[in-house]
Amino acid sequence: MSTVVTDTRAVFAREMTLVMRDPFSLAFSIVQPLVFLALFGPLLGATVGSEAFGGESSLQWFLPGVIVMLSMFGTTMTGSNLQIEMNTGSYERVLATPLSRSSLLAGRALKEFAPLVVQAVLLTVVTVPFGFDLYPVHVLAGLVLLGVFGIGVGALSYSLALVTRKNEWVFWMVQQSLLFPLLILSGIMLPLESAPGWMKTASSFNPLTYVVEAERTLFGGTFVDRDVAYGALAAALTCVAGVAIGIRTIRRSTS
Amino acid sequence: MIHAEKLTRHFRVKKEIVEAVRGIDIDVAEGELLAFLGPNGAGKSTTLRMLTSLLPPTSGTATVAGVSVVDDPAGVRKRIGYIGQGNGAGHYYRVLDELLMQGRFYGMSKTESRQRAGELLETLDLRDLAKRAVITLSGGQRRRLDIAMGLMHQPRLLFLDEPSTGMDPQNRANLWEHIVRMRQQHGTTIVLTTHYLEEADSMAERVVVIDHGQIIADDTPANLKAKLAGDRIMFTVPAGDVEKAERLLADHGNLLQRAGVTNDRIRVSARVENGPEVLPVLVRAADAAGLAVLAAQLHQPTLDDVFLNLTGRSLREGGESR
Fold it and tell me: What would the DSSP string read from start to end of B80-139?
């Protein structure tokens, strides 16, 4: 187990080298969600009305969703950076080292997740003056939960990149056509309370739904809750399944 | 250092099974410098990928550096170095960063990595490039960086897949200088693949010829050439003297097929042992017998002749890579 942690840190460190060497892109990507929140948040409150959010401010409902959405945008991209390295020999060289396979998956997924931690802190702090109630410990726990989920999603994205290595565009096609239905069917952007029955059924099979609910509960300052337990379970299952599929795909990948 | 038995690998390509490697048995002792030689698609790289644990064999076993590739692939990877066909360093990384990271991947400490990276940058003429992004390096520089990365953890066994493909002769010679020096210093066992005949001939101490996924010959380049090809002496003589010339050649070696050069000139040839010494003897004998030799040639064999004699095909006709 300790080698997995050491190896994951090493893989993560290599991935982060490029991020740290390019501070402008990093800064830009961190500020971007603020713009999104500033423009979309007020519209949402005005359109849907506060009764849909159980009387809370729309910000309290919307912010955790934005953070989950950003984490999905990031971690589903894990495979795309891999594609570049597969075309040169650099992925093969890393494969030839003794690094454990699960650390290749986790290290790369966490690199996509890392900027989110900074983004999330920034977003929550900035929204406090606009009526967001901040529970720092709960937010932190929410990020850990999201990180576990993100490793699973990242590992799946990694597997997708391996499977589609001969036609790169298939990666994008699959990634895009899965990402948006998953996001919408989890109630991230708009509440599903007024959705038709089939959408509600579909959303109950979406692990992201439970993660979003758990995040909203945690960001609202509650630890002990059924939603949090379900969310943690959904995150853990996604993580285990994603890593298992990832390891299997790496082992079976022949070129 | 390596012991492989009946190593086999099949690929499924569009519902058809392709037998890339068909039962390879090989033993490599510590300190050897061995080259797998064969045309593209012969199964060299697939064999190497199985020996380095990057590809699980369909059947058969291999023990590499004392560890089974099937049971403990990670253990194999810890004990060997592997330099693949492509460039191992990430395009956007800096040269030194990638070297240090490679050390970290092999569990080396920071100080150890720094020291080792410094030495390698020095010996591989990369010192001035330490802070440069890999993408800005030339092909030869990138290949040297690949070698440096493969050597970071000082493996006792190093695999190189087509190390000099696409390099110009000068860079190739330079690369080999580094490989040979490193071997002298550390006694590293080296296993490489190549489809360059000259490279296998001049550099490897043992050449394993692979074709259609099987080993068809395995010896030193000198022995392969002596046993499987041999020196060839060719005389061009007037058409009327052909029989006399062939009788003479047959006394000193094995007669080969004659070939018409022009209408009135015929080339006769024979395989002989120790051609350089037999040639003057034959010329003098021809003179004494009143045979007019119009041209005399001695052909000493290359590994291509070896391959030609083994398979009926020339290696030089080779097609696409991989």
Answer: EEEE-SS--S-TTSBHHHHHHHHHHHTT--HHHHHHHHHHHHHHTT-GGGTTSBGGGS-H
Select from B67, B94, B105 the residue whose CB has the most chain A CBs within 10 Å, as the one to mutate to test that interface.
Answer: B105
Write out chain B residues lying below 8 Å of A97, CB-based: 77, 102, 105-106
Q: Chain A residues with CB inside 8 Å of B94's CB? A: 21
CATH code assigned at B7: 3.40.50.300
Are B210 and B272 members of one domain? Answer: no
Q: What distance in Å separates the CA atoms of residue B177 and residue B170, rounded to the nearest whole number?
A: 11
**By the 8 A CB rule, do B283 and B240 touch?**
no
Of B75, B85, B97, the CB nearest to A17: B97
Find the domain containing B104 and state its range.
2-225
b (16+ CB within 10 A) / e for B142-171: bbbbbbbbbbbbebebbbbbbbbeebeeeb
Q: Give the count of domains, chain B.
A: 2
The enclosing H or E element of A192 equals none
Distances A92 to A163, A179, B92, B250, B291 between C-alpha atoms, Å = 15, 28, 16, 56, 64
Contact between B89 and A93 using a beta-carbon 8 Å cutoff: yes
Q: Is residue B306 part of a domain?
A: no
Residue at B153 is within a domain: yes
Close Cβ partners of A144 (under 8 Å, ≥ 6 residues apart): none
> Which residues in B lie closer than 8 A to residue A18 (C-beta atoms)?
90, 92-93
Task: Answer yes or no: do B217 and B256 share one domain.
Answer: no
- Cβ–Cβ < 8 Å for B45, B193: yes
Inspect the interface and report whether the beta carbons of B93 and A88 lie closer than 8 Å.
Answer: no
The answer on B241 and B212 residing in a single domain is no
Region of residue B14 (left: phi > 0; alpha: psi -120 to 50; beta: else): left
* CB-based contact A224:A232 (threshold 8 Å): no
Backbone angles phi, psi at A128, to 5 degrees: -55, -45
Q: From residue B138, give the alpha-carbon distance in Å to each of B94, B125, B253.
A: 14, 13, 51
How does pLDDT run along chain A (255 residues), one tens digit per residue?
Answer: 578 999 999 999 999 998 888 888 888 888 888 888 888 777 776 766 655 555 567 788 888 998 999 999 999 999 998 998 898 889 999 999 999 999 999 999 999 898 888 888 888 888 888 878 889 999 999 999 999 999 999 999 999 999 999 888 999 999 999 999 999 999 888 888 888 889 989 999 999 999 999 999 999 998 888 999 999 999 999 999 999 999 999 988 865
Contacts of A98 in chain B (CB under 8 A): 74-75, 77-78, 105-107
ipTM exceeds 0.95: no
The sign one gets for the Cα dihedral A233, A239, A242, A245 is: negative
- Paired sense of beta strands B80-83 and B16-28, if any: unpaired
Q: Which is nearest to B118 in space by CA: B152, B166, B69?
A: B152
